[in-house]
């Protein structure tokens, strides 16, 4: 059982590969940490997101609401630190969270998202990369 990526609210996520929105298999189950309520800070966040492919499937993590219900899935991501390139941030996050080295294959595609989460506004700019181990 490897290390796990944390959700925005601090809980560990199951890593699952998805094809056509259906669960293809579970890569590994990770212990669930205590749930913390997450709220967006009033600042723009910069994220690097990895579309990590294996046999035509993309690695994704379950997303939970405040009541610990699965409300969706999303590819793995992490924050870009000041002075860090977005591709380096992606590689760092995969190494820190899953203890794997990834190679960036393509990207970035840049997406800006203004959204509401549990009634609070958020703003994020995401650099999306295709990656492989």
From TrEMBL:
The keyword Phosphoprotein does not apply. InterPro entries: NUDIX_hydrolase-like_dom_sf, NUDIX_hydrolase_CS. Its cofactor is Mg(2+). Keywords: Plasmid. GO terms for molecular function: hydrolase activity. The keyword Phosphoprotein does not apply. PROSITE patterns: NUDIX_BOX (PS00893). This is NUDIX domain-containing protein. It comes from Rhizobium jaguaris.
């Amino acid at each position: 059982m490897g290390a796990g990526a944390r959700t925005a609210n601090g809980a560990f996520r199951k890593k699952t590969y998805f094809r056509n929105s259906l669960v293809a298999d579970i890569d590994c189950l990770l212990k669930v940490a205590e749930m913390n309520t997450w709220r967006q800070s009033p600042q723009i966040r910069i994220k690097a997101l990895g579309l990590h492919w294996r046999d035509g499937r993309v690695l994704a993590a379950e997303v939970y609401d405040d009541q610990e219900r699965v409300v969706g899935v999303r590819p793995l991501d992490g924050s870009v630190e000041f002075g860090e390139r977005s591709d380096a941030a992606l590689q760092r996050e995969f190494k820190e969270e899953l203890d794997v080295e990834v190679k960036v294959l393509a990207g970035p595609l840049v997406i800006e998202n203004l959204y509401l989460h549990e009634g609070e506004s958020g703003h994020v700019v995401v650099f999306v990369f295709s990656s492989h181990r």
